[in-house]
Amino acid sequence: MQTRxxxxxxxxxxxxxxxxxxxxxxxxxxRAAALLRLQDGSELxxxxxxxxxxxxxxxxxxxxxxxxxxxxxxLSRQLLAKAGGEIEETxxxxxxxxx
Length: 99
Hints:
Elements: E1 19-26, E2 29-37, E3 43-51, H1 60-91
Antiparallel strand pairs: 1-2, 2-3
């Protein structure tokens, strides 16, 4: 007797996340705000900034990229802390997560 087993495609997307990013320009300073909504209903918010040196040419895109990178770095630290807390709740042991 032969039975069929279902296999899941490892490349199949199970869940997707979208990060919303907003920027504010104030002179030589660029601020970025990131928002991530997770499947469990929680939201994480992070911020980053960039300041253009007075001798540098004005390139809005570069300021946005630097500020966004810093906001996403903050967001990644928050995600690790959240995951660590969830691991600790389940295992009742200290979780050591590193990037």
